Amino acid sequence: MSLEKTAEQIKNMEIRGAGKIAREAAAALRDHAESLPKAGLSAFVSEMNRAADILLATRPTAVSLPNAVHLTLAGLSSAETESEARALVKTQADRFVDASTKAVERIAEICASRIADGMTIMTHCNSKAALAGILLAKKQGKNISVIATEVRPWNQGLLTIKTLNDHEIPTTYIVDSAVRTFMKEADLVIVGADAVTVKGAVVNKIGTSQIALAAHEARKNVLVAAETYKFAPKTALGHHIEIEERSTSEVLSPETAAELPFVTVRNPVFDVTPPRYIDVIVTEAGAVPPEAAYTIMKEYLGFNPEQENP
Ligand code: RI2
Fold first, then answer.
1. Which residues are 203's β-sheet partners?
2. By the 8 A CB rule, do 195 and 301 touch?
3. The pLDDT value given to residue 303
C-alpha cells in the first residue's frame, strides 16, 4: 500500500487506535523508503521528510503518530550516504513496530495482574492496550465481566463488544450517558490513551474524563494502559495537545442540521482527564503514577528540553 493510501486510511479512520496508527505509519515510511529509486542522499532525505509531513497531517491528537515518525526517521539528517540513510529507516521502523507489539504484550501482563477473579471492568472506546489486559485476565482463568460503552459517534464500542464476545467474556453494553448509573457495578476502570502530558493528564476518547470523574466519586480505580510512545514530550515545552474536532456530519446528518439554523453541532473526539482522577498509568516500563510522566519522557523517548521534540 502506498504511503498516501495509508495516510488517507488514518484520516478516515479505517486505520484507527493510537498504537495501530503509529505502527502503520512507521511501516508506511519503511515501505515508502524501499519504493524510492536511488537518487542521492539529499533527495532521499527530503522525500522522507515530505512523506513524514503527509502522515503527520492526518490526525492531530494521538502523539503516538509523531513519536513513531520521529523514532523512525531519527538521525536521518546525519547519515553520510544514501544506503546508510535507507538502512536507518528500515531498521528503526522495524524496531518501532516490534517494540510497540511487545509493549502492548507487557502492558497486558501488568494490567491482568491488577484484575482479580470476579471483577467487573468498565472500559471505553476500543483500546488494544486496555483490551489486551482484559483478554489476558480471562485467559488466566479469571472469572471477569465487562461494562463497555457505545462511544458515539463512531461506535468503537461495537468493536470492543465483538472482541469480548469472541472470548466469551460476559459483557454489558451501555450508552455513553449511562456510565454513572453503572459505575456502582464496576470494580475497576481500564481505558487506553492517545496522549499523556508532562503533568500526567491523559488525552483519550471523548467521554473518558466523565468516566474518570464518576469512578472517582464512586471510589473505583482508574487504570490507563499507555505505551511509552504515547507520552508527549512537547507538552514539557509548554505546547498543548490539539484536540481533533471531526466533521459534524458524524453527529447529525447535514439534512437535519440544515433544518436547524440556530443549532451548532460540535464533534471533539477526545478529552483530557486530569491526573488527580487517574490512579495508575500502565506502560511497558511498569505501572507508574501520572506524576512520573516526565521521567518516562526522559528515559524512554530520549526527551531533551533543548532539542526539537515531537
Ligand atoms: P490503543 C483510540 O482513538 C481511542 O481513543 C483509544 O482509547 C486510543 O485510540 C488508544 O488505542 P481513535 O483512533 O492504542 O479511535 O490502545 O480515535 O489501541
1. 195, 272
2. no
3. 77
User: Tens digit of pLDDT for each residue in 204-239?
Assistant: 999 999 999 999 999 999 999 999 999 999 999 999
Q: How far is CA 178 from CA 100, 149, 151, 181, 291, in A?
A: 33, 8, 11, 5, 30
Q: How far apart are CA 49 and CA 130, in angstroms?
A: 33
Q: What is the pLDDT of residues 255-269, one digit of tens each?
A: 999 999 999 999 999
pLDDT level of residue 146 (50, 70, 90 thresholds):
very high
Quick one: pLDDT band at residue 308, thresholds 50, 70, 90? low
pLDDT at 302: 78
Annotated active-site residue in 98, 111, 117, 194: 194
Candidate list 53, 111, 117, 125, residue with the active-site label: 125
pLDDT band at 305 (very low <50, low <70, confident <90, very high): confident
Ligand 1 atom closest to Cα of residue 13: 13
Ligand 1 pocket, 205 CB below 6 A? yes
pTM of the model: 0.96
How much distance in Å is there from the Cα of 193 to the middle of ligand 1?
6
Q: Is 111 an active-site residue?
A: no
Angle, CA of 212, 248 and 205, to the nearest 5°? 20
Look at residue 307 in the predicted model and tell me its pLDDT: 73
Q: Could you tell me which residues are beta bridge partners of residue 120?
A: 145
- Cβ of 200 below 6 Å from ligand 1: no
Q: How many helices (H) and strands (E) does the chain have?
A: 11, 10
Determine the distance separating the centroid of ligand 1 and the alpha carbon of 162, expressed in angstroms.
Answer: 16
Strand residue runs (E) in 176-303: 188-191, 195-196, 202-205, 221-225, 270-273, 280-283, 286-288
Residue 157 near ligand 1, beta carbon < 6 Å: no
Atom of ligand 1 nearest to the CA of 131: 16
Instruction: Return the residue matching grid coordinates 454513572.
Output: 180
